[in-house]
Amino acid sequence: MGSKLYEIGRFVNADLLIRYIEERRHEDGGYCFVSVLDDTNVNDTYYAVKIYDLLGMEVPEKEKTIKFLEKAIQPQTAVVAIAMAMEGLAILGAKDIAMEHLNIVFTKYNPLEGRFAVGLGGSEEFGTATPLEATYWVVKAFKAIGYDFSPDEKEAIRTFVMKFRNGNGYGVKGPTTTMTYQALYTLHALGYRPPKSPHFKNCELCGEWGGFTEVPYSLPPYLEPTFYASRGLELQGEAPTCPSRHIWFIRQLQNSNGGFRRSLELGISNFQNTYRALAVLDFMKRFI
């Protein structure tokens, strides 16, 4: 058992977790979180790669997964999925393959032409991707593969992101945890240094709950804002107020199949939730 997996195993059932991922790998190198379906997809495959990487483990038969992700980068593929595939390739040591497909990204995402994702398609969070979400994923992918935007491109992206500035965070009708983190990450990745936002701290729940919320002073906590708030605190060099309570919250989310759901209520496991739960644990355990 790897050292990181051993550390995570102090808090959750690591054996079940690994079995959950491995049983959902298919012959084409892709993954599907519903084990009985042979419907492999970029989202599940990306998060499987991220889970193995977080745990410091090798992806089984990674050459198959590299081919799967490269094949997914097509003109008809949504830009968020393309960005996931490119970042996944970078993690697997195939940055050169990802770089070969930059032209496809620029047909959908070209900040100098004011195109912040044409034909947005599917989203991680909201059903249909927002241009800010697409920007976050493209910037994250380009950073992973080592592509540097030009100064003019960076300034165009910065100007676009700042349109979402809302009070002490970022959002459309009001600041949200997800959009605040996506905006701040994008600005930092481009070399800008925006002021720290108190939004993440305002969404922290201690006491009987644990976890974080999407907007301040609300209930209940969910895994998505807990993940993004943890990332936001880390980005700003801040510590959580009650890390042990957040670890308790995450531990409650592991299902009997080894994967994780998004809330304290009943829910199904998926790879996205499982990666996010592990990432939160990995961050919170530094403070206990």
UniProtKB/TrEMBL annotation:
What region holds the Prenyltransferase alpha-alpha toroid domain?
16-81, 133-284
Pfam families noted in UniProt: Prenyltrans
| Membrane-spanning ranges | none
Show the GO MF annotations: catalytic activity
Q: Which organism is it from?
A: Thermococcus thioreducens
Name the chain's protein.
Prenyltransferase alpha-alpha toroid domain-containing protein
Question: What UniProt keywords are attached to this protein's entry?
Answer: Repeat
Gene3D superfamilies attached to this UniProt entry: 1.50.10.20
Keyword Lyase present in the record's keywords: the answer is: no
- Note the superkingdom of the native organism: Archaea
Q: Which residues form a coiled coil?
A: none
